[in-house]
Design a protein that fits this description.
- This protein has 160 residues and is of the alpha/beta class.
- The chain has five helices and four strands; from the N terminus they run βαβααβαβα.
- The protein has a single domain, classed as Rossmann fold (3-Layer(aba) Sandwich).
- α1 crosses α5 and α2 packs across α5.
- The longest helix is centred in the C-terminal third of the chain and has 21 residues.
- The protein is globular and about 40 Å long.
- This is LMWPc-domain-containing protein.
Length: 160
């Protein structure tokens, strides 16, 4: 549980860091601002377990879905690095493949907590599926999932 002057840092992680994790980062940041909880967070960012898209902007469908809901997106893809395990308190990933990769990459003695972001979804939808090869409906579904999980994670931290 967080206390009143905690400086929490959160990294959202998916495979390529162009669909799910930049959406989760944007939605979570928006949710934090909406609840006026900015002072509790030192850093909110996202990354991918693979570096396929390093430097790229988020997928246009992911960004459009966020904008449709009034959520700004401003991110460039990056790959998870060992330093992230020290810079962030939480590495929250989208699926079990990401989770396995993060646990495998985690340096010994790391302070970071690695978990599925979907664990915080009050509707129990643990896996946030990759929408990349599907239609716009997948991005909308992801948006609803990360919105619920954002609220759930803030409750888990004791901030709501």
């Amino acid at each position: 549980m967080a206390n009143d002057n905690a400086n929490i840092s959160v990294l959202f992680v998916c495979l390529g860091n162009i669909c799910r994790s930049p959406m989760a980062e944007a939605v979570f940041s928006h949710t934090v601002k909406k609840h006026q909880l900015d002072q509790h967070f030192e850093k909110i960012d996202s990354a991918g377990t693979a570096g396929y898209h390093t430097g790229d902007a988020p997928d246009s469908r992911s960004a459009a879905t966020c904008r449709k809901h009034g959520v700004p997106v401003n991110h460039r893809a990056q790959k998870v690095q060992a330093k992230h395990y020290e810079q962030f308190d939480y590495l929250l990933c989208m699926d079990e493949s990401n989770l396995e990769d993060l646990q495998h990459m985690k340096p010994k003695g790391s302070k970071a907590k690695v978990a599925l972001f979907g664990e915080f979804d009050p509707q129990g939808e643990r896996i946030i599926e990759d929408p990349y090869y599907g239609g716009n409906d997948g991005f909308e579904h992801n948006f609803q999932q990360v919105s619920r999980a954002s609220e759930g994670f803030l409750k888990h931290l004791g901030l709501l």
